[in-house]
Amino acid sequence: MQDLKELTAIWSNNLKDLYSERESRNILLLVLEDVFDFNRSSLLVSSQIELSETQIAELDQISTRLKTGEPLQYIVGFTYFDDLKIYVAPGVLIPRPETEELLAWMMETIGEYENRRVEDWCTGSGCIALALKNRKPEFVVKGYDISSEALEIAKRNAKEANLEVDFIADDALNPENKEVVDVIVSNPPYIPWKEKEQMHQNVTGFEPDLALFVPNDDPLLFYRSLAQYASRRLTDKGYLFFELHENFAFETQRMVEDLGFEAVEIRKDLQGKERMLKALWCVK
């Protein structure tokens, strides 16, 4: 038997250079629950737990990798997004809470509709596309990405979740798809390269540059391409949704409005940052 208080103290001390004591404890609880199948409620009230030698060795290995800045989600190979277990690897971004907020906004807007056709561009792990399909099984949902590695991970997630979503290779900067759809959503690359030095090592050292960065002189590169594409492919009263870079939110709004979109709205995330955009397309 292992003394849980002692185990937590050792774990926290090993990670003190990167995480606070509270963060370290929360990570340990997540590992014990999600990797070793301990019950969270029991962990919160127990003073001791039983770990095998193999489990202790695995905990040490996880701690060692965490000390390098590697995200826990890549170490264990999965995360959770809108009640779905999403497999992740360094070829895709780790889904963020603000992306769940974007999904919630989408459901507020289109949740009462049936038989919507939805495209998710720069789909990565497929988390948005799959969560939409899970919530609205009657929707026809497709995800697009230029990365073959991302598409393989997205397809695995679809298979594991038993959700019928097509994941297709296409370039958001030169979209080849010619279908007419009701909703287009994207969380595209939007971080200028010059901001890389200010970012945490657990992002820049492990998450894919392809999904993160854009040229310093054109931060709206993907937004512009996808908004232009949406203006050609959305049905009358179709919607465009973007996850935004907070520093370019209103610049993105003006660009979208200049393309003829209406009722363009920006919403703040729970941190109070302008991180989401919704726009309506009306056929002229």
Describe the structure.
This protein is α/β, with parallel strands linked by helices. The chain folds into two domains: 2-68, Orthogonal Bundle (Helicase, Ruva Protein, domain 3), CATH 1.10.8; 81-281, Rossmann fold (3-Layer(aba) Sandwich), CATH 3.40.50.150. The chain is 40% helix and 22% strand. It has helices at residues 4-14, 21-34, 40-45, 53-67, 72-76, 97-110, 127-135, 148-161, 201-204, 221-233, 249-258, and strands spanning 2-3, 48-49, 78-81, 84-87, 117-121, 140-145, 166-169, 181-186, 191-192, 213-214, 234-243, 262-268, 274-281. Strands 7-6-5-8-11-13-12 form a seven-stranded mixed β-sheet, with helices on both faces. The chain has a two-stranded antiparallel ribbon with strand order 1-2. It has a two-stranded antiparallel ribbon with strand order 3-4. The longest helix has 15 residues, at 53-67. The N and C termini lie far apart (71 Å). The relative contact order is 0.11.
Keyword list:
single chain; 284 residues; alpha/beta; Helicase, Ruva Protein, domain 3; two-stranded antiparallel sheet; elongated
